[in-house]
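Exercise 3.2. Students should predict the tertiary structure of the chain below and write it as structure tokens, then compare their answer with the key that follows.

Predict this chain's 3D structure.
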Amino acid sequence: MKNITDYQHKKILVLGLAKSGIAAATLLHELGAFVTVNDQKPFEANPAAQELLEKGITVICGSHPPELLDEGFELVVKNPGIPYTNPLVSKAMEMQIPVITEIELAYRVSEAGIIGITGSNGKTTTTTLIYNMLEKGEKHPLIAGNIGTVASEVAMKATSENQMVVELSSFQLMGVDQFRPHIAIITNIYEAHLDYHKTKENYAKAKANITLNQTEDDFLIVNADQEELLELVSFSKAATLPFSTKRYLEKGVSIREGKIVYFGEEIISLEEILLPGEHNQENILAAIAAVKLLGVNNDAIIRVLTSFQGVEHRTQFISDINGRKFYNDSKATNILATKSALQAFKKPVILLAGGLDRGNGFSELVPYLSGVKALILFGETAHKLEDAGKQAGIQSIYHVDNVEEAVPLSYKVSEPGDIVLLSPACASWDQYRTFEVRGNIFAQAVHKLKESR
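Answer key:
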């Protein structure tokens, strides 16, 4: 960690706890700041606030009172999930108090090089692939951000020998000032998080902040198959390294005659790669671009791609039971993610889907259901998904109470060679606390089924 004095004796407000708030408050306290933490959860039910108080940090709990800013704070470090419409945040901006997220702190104190990964889909898989490839290439990576440990906490321990591989959300990137990754990646841009950003333009602009401060000495890896994305980052000063799954690029990473090619150099055949789907090919190309820039050899890349079976809950292979392959894609909490998962498989699919009803229909999923031979549905959206299945001409549609019941039924209605895919196209909150819980229950049910066969 850099020995900086930027925050010494400054009054700083950390707004919102959770993991990022705890890490930010702890870091700033160590850097000599006068830190106040403000969290909505009452103090009596807030173990994190109690722990910070014991360290000598001022803690105010129960609400976010705007008058708190009258105490003369010089900086606000905001939890990414708190919107800028929050009265306290709005007042801070009116008072021209800088409002940042903890990723900015991580950048300022990190001695390590930073690889930042953002995009609508594929962030976690790309981040994990890069980490694994760097590890195999002996480049001493540390994983951080939305995946793994909070970035500022990792930055406290990182040295110049490390590479920080950081997954970044649009919420985090709205709160940057000097943040400048040496290598930035934007996997793709689709419409998302409009409840927070209000418009796709605002959302895309937040994503583009990843390259805002990059210079000619930095690199921007970008999806060349999205013209909209190329236009979005046309302002960037970084050296652009494009990737494409749809056309061959002489200067970039692409696919030629069934092989991944980096600036004309063949790396690996697609047939050797375990991770299924064109959407994962995008993630693989982006990851290869990043690690090649850092000198990772092809052997390390190949070893990862011939063994990596997917990130947990993201088209993750669980097991083969008598010729039926079971995949956990519980992270597919929207239609777009389920579309991508369905496109990944050429064999017949038994699709397990359903969940929280957010008021939307599923007609746009219909064209992607052509390879689905049976639908097993659960949750609030089961009947809406049944309508979509009927539009797609699916004859075998079943309703069950939950994911656990769906697994043995999926085996019963499937045949050797089929794919059983949990890809709900919905959030989990009608039945499960998180998509991770939903995915874990699916995996447990698959293992239980396998033991009984």
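Discussion points: The domain at 316-451 is CATH 3.90.190.20 (Protein-Tyrosine Phosphatase; Chain A). The chain is about 35% helix and 20% strand.
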